Amino acid sequence: MIGCCFVVKDGDAVLMRSSEPGKPSYVARVEAIETDARGSHAKVRVRWYYRPEESIGGRRQFHGAKEVFLSDHFDFQSADTIEGKCKVHSFSSYTKLDSVGNDDFFCRFEYNSATGAFDPDRVAVFCKCEMPYNPDDLMVQCEECSEWFHPSCIGTTIEEAKKLDNFYCEECSPQQQNLHNSNSTSKNRDAKVNGKRSLEVTKSKIKHTKRPG
Ligand SMILES: [Zn+2]
Ligand SMILES: [Zn+2]
What segments bear the compositional bias annotation Basic residues (predicted)? Predict the structure, then answer.
């Protein structure tokens, strides 16, 4: 199917015009394209990506600005509402992008639009604040225990953190170990970091979001 300046095929991620003026475009995955006998009036079967604010639990601190959830919500839409193509990256490939464009998104959860449940329903947490990783937030890694920290949670700024060549967290820094005369071994710390620290991401707050169709 050919638009004004882009070609859309099954499996592509697309931006679709919102039915409410002023709202950001919807993100969807094209599942199938249907045209009538004359090749006009194309309809597309789409699978919606939800933005965090459209989910039952709402946007949470660890959700990235470009995060979307692959929902179980399918629809038929007129092909005219397609504004253009976009890219929905995996979480890890998104974090490796050199620069994030307007049409770059990432998805790490599938979302059940009826129950508000996420798959996976738990996600690893980091830092003293025990939050999942938000790729928009800079984090620094401890050279010793490999744990990740937010600059603000370790009493520094993003600018200062960017200048750090080596970072040792409170527990691993040599000064701190001398102070405490270290009675905890590094083995214990490894267990803590690699252990199943995670956050349950499915929250059931009732909030309904309207979708077109
Ligand atoms: Zn933190
Ligand atoms: Zn450490």
Answer: 204-213
Q: Which residues surround ligand 2, an ion (CB under 5 A)?
A: 142, 144-145, 169, 172
For residue 162, CA distances in Å to 88, 159, 174, 180, 207 come to 28, 5, 21, 28, 39
Q: Are strands 118-119 and 110-111 parallel, antiparallel or unpaired?
A: antiparallel
Q: Are residues 103 and 129 in the same domain?
A: no
Ligand 2 midpoint to CA 150 (Å): 13
Among the candidates 119, 145, 163, a domain finishes at 119
Q: How confident is the model at residue 187 (pLDDT cuts 50, 70, 90)?
A: very low
Are the beta carbons of 122 and 200 closer than 8 angstroms?
yes
Q: Is residue 206 part of a domain?
A: no
Q: Which ligand is nearest to the CA of 137?
A: 1
pLDDT the model gives residue 199? 86
Output the domain CATH number for residue 100: 2.30.30.490
User: What separation in Å is there between the alpha carbon of 137 and the centre of ligand 1?
Assistant: 10
pLDDT digits (tens, 9 = 90+) for 17-62: 998 888 899 999 999 998 877 766 789 999 999 999 999 999 999 9
Q: Per the structure, how many domains does the chain have?
A: 2
For the CA of 166, the nearest ligand: 2
Report the pLDDT value the prediction gives residue 203, as an integer from 0 to 100.
64
Ligand 2 geometric centre to CA of 147 (Å): 6
Q: Which pLDDT does position 4 carry in this prediction?
A: 56
Query: pTM of this prediction?
Result: 0.79
Q: Which domain holds residue 44?
A: 13-119
Residues whose CB falls within 8 Å of the CB of residue 91, separated by 6 or more in sequence, listed in order: 106, 107, 108, 135
